[in-house]
Amino acid sequence: MKGLKRMKKSFLFISCDEAQHICDKAQYGEASSWERFKLNIRLAYCHITKSYSVKNTKLTESLEKADVKCLKAEERKKIENQFKEELAKQQQNN
Amino acid sequence: MPKHQIDPNNWVKLYSDYLFNYTITRVNDREVAQDLISETFLAGLKSMANFKGEASERTWLISILKRKIIDYYRKINSNKGKAEVRMGYINSEEDGGDWLEERVADPFDKTAEDSMVNSELGDAIYDCLDKLPEKQADVFKMKTILGYDTETICNELDITASNLWVIIHRARTALADCMEENWF
């Protein structure tokens, strides 16, 4: 009976690290409903998880608001190759 | 002794993403943005002798890029460009009907102020991203900015999914702390 109770507890109550991991996944829409449920339980009583979650969500909102962009690997490679050619030419001339 | 040194060997690695983000918000075309960045690097290479070292390399490259962006708009705003713009709306009288409604400002549309704040926010995010270790920044950009799925990144960088999430967690924690200090 005691063993079953402990199993149920570990089934529902997750560690702070696991909660933060689920919180990260949730920012990318990759946390399952069950994981989000367990995260919500932890959020109800753990202020460390709560403060991490607030900060994490704020970061996601900022990233969405700023709509930051970056180069894809192949685009960067193209620019790099062009530039390397010119750099080599310049170094040859000097 | 100048405060900052110049080393073109690292320009693409260090500044291409920052310059790209700066450019894409102003020209809204990936191809054009890439061309302008290439031109900026080449112009920087040619005028390296003018670098006094008072500003950082990044600031100096941005000042070149700003001129490139202005030149780009001057070029497309030539007489031919103007004619195309004029043809667009004013002459389409036959369409009739909704023209007045279409010209009323949309209150939910982005204002110039919004765009400016968002662009400054983007700069602040990039300033914080620059402080991350290279691998963390790469994984974070692939996952968060480019929106690649976990499997693609793992295959590309030869890491496991749990490795990826550890890197993402460290990157997000560092970024959130940095943004807390500099922006929020």
Structural summary, described in words:
By secondary structure, chain A is an all-alpha fold. Chain A has one domain (2-67). Chain A has helices at residues 2-12, 16-27, 33-45, 47-66, 73-93. The model of chain A has no long low-confidence stretch (mean pLDDT 89). With 184 residues, chain B is mainly alpha-helical. Chain B has 2 domains: 8-88, Rna Polymerase Sigma Factor, Chain: A (Orthogonal Bundle); 132-182, Arc Repressor Mutant, subunit A (Orthogonal Bundle), CATH 1.10.10. Helices cover 70% and strands 0% of the residues of chain B. Chain B contains 9 helices and no strands. In chain B, helix 1 packs antiparallel against helix 6 (112-129). The radius of gyration of chain B is 21 Å and the shape is globular. The model of chain B is unreliable at 88-93 (pLDDT under 50). Classes of the chains: A mainly alpha (94), B mainly alpha (184). The interface between A and B is large, with 33 and 42 residues. Chain B: Residues 12-75 form the RNA polymerase sigma-70 region domain.
